Description:
The protein is of the alpha/beta class.
Amino acid sequence: xxLENSVxxxxxxxxxxxxxxxxxxxxxxxxxxxxxxxxxxLNELKTSIENDGGQASVVTGDVxxxxxxxxxxxxxxxxxxxxxxxxxxxxxxxxxxxxxxxTDEWEKMVDVNIKGVLNGVAAVLPQLKAxxxxxxxxxxxxxxxxxxPGGAIYCATKAAVKMLSEGLRQELTPKYGINVTSIxxxxxxxxxxxxxxxxxxxxxxxxxxxxxxxxxxxxxxxIYYTLTQPDRVNINDVYIMPSEQQ
Length: 246
């Protein structure tokens, strides 16, 4: 993809990976559409991007609501005239041991991590098909490859995203030229762990938090690499780990 003037929708853009990705892509000429629920934070990011010479648009929405996603896509096309790529980044990670039966947290993870990704795909696909090309990048996790304590539900959601990405690639890429990638990071220094309420899990995470984790910009760089390959190249997945993580 030629990023210059490409229109890229990023969910979960208010912090972490989404925020750094928006800054990175805008710096290389993309028009970034910032989607999250926090309008004030998104507007601050938009101002920062524009002060650096980039272009950004803020469209608040909840990824778990299909109607919100459709409105975001409609506003994106009316504002910038097109939509070339979706980065499904929004996600939750309230880890807990299954026996704690934190079923409300399970449901939130399924709603955001799986249904939110499906809503994004459904909302953008008609436009990408009309364009006869584009990109869908889904943020999965190393958790799609292996279980870790307290991660049964989270790992399951990220495994679903990984397999969904492969299914989309096989169905969409040869037929419509829509490239699909699963980005699978290990531990990243973000606020993802802030949603954990299981005190036993917090204690076990201390060792991980003491190591040198990935930074959000490392994942932004992986996304940039993925988007800037020739159209003939589909990066199926990017499995990226901190050097210290086993």
